[in-house]
Design goal:
Blueprint: H1 3-19, H2 22-31, H3 45-69, H4 72-81, H5 88-96, H6 98-102, H7 105-123, E1 135-137, E2 148-156, E3 162-172, E4 175-183, E5 186-187, H8 188-203, H9 205-220
Antiparallel strand pairs: 1-2, 2-3, 3-4, 4-5
Length: 234
């Protein structure tokens, strides 16, 4: 995959999932901060997006200077607001593909933690500069008895270009959860499956997990991040 597309994908995973309704909810939020919900409502895809967007926008606006000073705090915010409503195990299962079937329970758990930790450490701080006027949710009707849904959004880059960001949700016992993001027609699950599949074939699953864990430790201790992780040109 082209590196510029991968960079946009990685940075927009979090943006698309939690802020796609911000352009709708932001005006009401600006008028009355009391409407910000205390928790995310995962009973319907639209409600999940609306409530998560309000919470994220509220905290980003209130603490933007703090987040700029310490981007790791953005990871904590994403972990608290977003990740409980992202089906990490289902997505990781699809990312690993055939390698999931042969992985041990310990390897699966380590991969999930290392993979999403890597995304948070490298790209979570891309959220810092996002505001409600950069995001627009498009009509995405969902049937009352549906068990899966696709919500279409547009993300406006700094140069004014609008890129389509669609994400896929499925209904679980814990409510609706998102599990894939498709940016400009490219699925992040499929792309990572191709990338990790090739590396696992060459080096083995343990080697890939160990690499991700080492990168996460380096990032958390103040080491360098993956090139392109900061200043993403969205």
């Amino acid at each position: 995959m082209r590196s510029d597309v991968m960079t946009r994908m990685l940075s927009a995973v979090f943006v698309a999932l939690v802020l796609s309704a911000a352009v709708v909810t932001a005006p009401a939020f600006a008028q009355a901060k009391s409407v910000v919900p205390k928790s995310v409502d995962a009973s319907e895809p639209g409600k999940l997006i609306d409530s998560a967007a309000n919470i994220m926008i509220s905290e980003l606006d209130a603490r933007r200077a703090e987040f700029r000073k310490d981007p790791l705090k953005v990871s904590a915010l994403v972990e608290r607001v977003l990740l409980p409503h992202f089906d990490v195990e289902h997505a990781a299962r699809l990312v690993l593909g055939r390698h999931w079937r042969t992985a041990t329970p310990e390897q699966r758990e380590r991969f999930i933690d290392a993979f999403y930790g890597s995304l948070l450490n490298n790209y979570g701080d891309a959220l810092i500069e996002f505001t409600g006027d950069r995001i627009k949710v498009l009509p995405s009707p969902v049937a009352a008895d549906a068990t899966s849904a696709t919500v279409r959004t547009e993300v406006k880059r700094s140069n004014g270009q609008k890129i389509p960001v669609n994400y896929t949700l499925r209904k679980t016992d814990a409510g609706w959860k998102a599990w894939d993001v498709v940016i400009e027609g490219i699925s992040y699950v499929k792309s990572f499956r191709e990338d990790f599949g090739s590396e696992i074939d060459q080096k083995g699953l343990d080697a890939v997990i160990t690499r991700l864990e080492a990168q996460n430790r380096s990032s958390q201790s103040g080491g360098s991040k993956t090139p392109g992780a900061r200043g993403v040109p969205l």
